[in-house]
Amino acid sequence: MQTRLSAEFLDTPDGREADGILRKCVHCGFCAATCPTYQLLGDELDGPRGRIYLIKEMLEGAEPSRATQLHLDRCLTCRACETTCPSGVSYGRLLDIGRHHIERVVPRTLRERVLRRAILATVPHRNRFARLMAVGRALRWLMPPSLRRSVPIVRPSGVWPAPRHERRMLVLTGCVQPVVAPAINAAAARVLDRLGVSLVAVDDECCGALAHHLSQEERSRRQMRRNIDAWWPQIERGAEALIVTASGCGAMVSDYGGLLRHDPAYARKAARISGLFRDIGDAVTRELARPGVTLHLKAPREGGPRVAFHSPCTLQHGLKIRGVIEPLLKRAGYTLTSVADGHLCCGSAGSYSFLQPAISRQLKANKLAALEAGGPDLIATANIGCLLHLASGGERPVRHWIELLDRALVS
User: How many angstroms separate the CA atoms of 366 and 78, rounded?
Assistant: First the structure.
């Protein structure tokens, strides 16, 4: 694609990066076939190619409008288009640049500003979010069933093994997951403990993804820096990896090095963090590949639980991790059901379900229909956002896959 970016913008790091990304696009349109919003809305401007044109025009000097902003807002940032693209266009990064630019030049409505500020003031702050959820649980019995499912009951997390191994790995605690599903990290700790690794948690916070995708870049960078400061002492004491059990957070942490590459005080540390990052599925698979390492699992019984696995967009398109978790579940005795259109987003997408509720609900309904078509006993996923989103719309239990693996361990 030929570009003529304005000199003012091209003379910036973001401008040069955007120019390089745009020049890779060859207008082929393969991306439209895998774009959830294009499939739903049928508008070229609600597909990757159309949004690329809008961003290109904007960076070349055309004045963006509210309509431009709406089409960019409607993108889920699922990055399915990146998986399909034969030219390797980094669409997700281009969208971040475009959104950040339009946020500065196109005013938002009062309602949009209030909603976005409310999200950023509560969700990424663990203690505030915990208080909000406590109120919701206290009033849960008064809610209609559809709303009640959006307020999850916390399940017992079980024992977190005390550090006893020479090998140690860190784990991201984060913001939402420890409040609504503390059993996930505890299950990861028990599985890794059986593999000879102690999992260590420190007082970190939100990974920064929510602020990043809401174009609050400085807020996001502050969160990244605080997390690096929290993890660094353990890294200096020999922690060999940073485990993330939420694939949405994992996609963000894996990019710390890129997002902080111009920060003189944190660039080196951020690059090290990205290098130490491991998704929990990748970590378990690596450990099982070591000579003499195994997991003692209960003998699979005939007619064991049937599981529909939902692979989050951040796992398969963001982190490019595919076909890793399914073999682990099969090894643990679960029968996996087939899921049509597994590449399509469930509609959670961070804050998307709050900001674009109508599209989000339709995508959730489509995803649940695909997941439930095979008659599973339960649904498994790898991201807390997807877990909560799917659980709010269906009748079957939704669990993180590491909980299922932990459940299959011999006591």
Answer: 16
Helices assigned H by DSSP within 278-383: 280-288, 313, 325-331, 352-355, 357-372
Element of type H or E holding 342: none
**Dihedral sign from CA coordinates of 135, 141, 142, 144:** positive
Give CA–CA dist 364/302, Å, rounded: 32
The pLDDT value recorded for residue 11 is: 84
| Strand (E) or helix (H) holding 381 | strand 378-381
Q: Quote the DSSP letter at residue 298.
A: P
Nearest alpha-carbon partner for 385 in 189, 192, 175, 203: 175
Nearest to 76 by CA among 120, 41, 115, 119: 41
CA distances in angstroms from 116 to 5, 108, 249, 357, 359, listed in the order given:
30, 10, 19, 14, 18
The H or E element that residue 243 is part of is strand 242-244
Environment class of residue 265 by beta-carbon count within 10 Å: exposed (0-12), middle (13-18) or buried (19+)? exposed
* Neighbouring C-alpha atoms within 13 Å toward the C-beta of 16: 3
pTM score, whole prediction: 0.93
Look at the block and give the residue holding tokens 């809610």: 143
User: What are the pLDDT digits (tens) for 119-158?
Assistant: 999 999 999 999 998 888 888 878 777 777 788 888 889 9
Tell me how far apart the alpha carbons of residues 58 and 81 are, in angstroms, rounded to a whole number.
21
DSSP assignment letter at 237: T
Degrees (nearest 5) of the Cα angle 97, 98, 101?
85
Q: For residue 238, is it left (φ>0), alpha (ψ between -120 and 50) or beta?
A: left
